[in-house]
Amino acid sequence: MARTHAAATAAADRRTAACAVAGVAAGVLLAVVWSARLVDGLGADAADGLLGRDSLKDDIPGSGAGVVFAFVVGLAGTFTACNVAAFGALAPMAGTGDTRGGRLVAALRPLARVTASAVAVAAAYGGICAAIGPDVPQLSQATGGGGIPPRALQALIAFTLIGLTMAWLGFAALGMAPDPLARRARDPERLRLLLIGALIGGFVIGRPYPLFRKAFAYAADTHNALYGALLFALIALGNMAVVAVLFLFLALAGRGRVPHWLNATPTRAARFTGTALLLFGTFTVVYWGVRLPARYDFWWFPTMPWNGG
Question: How far is it, in rounded angstroms, from Cα 143 to Cα 194?
Answer without folding.
Answer: 36
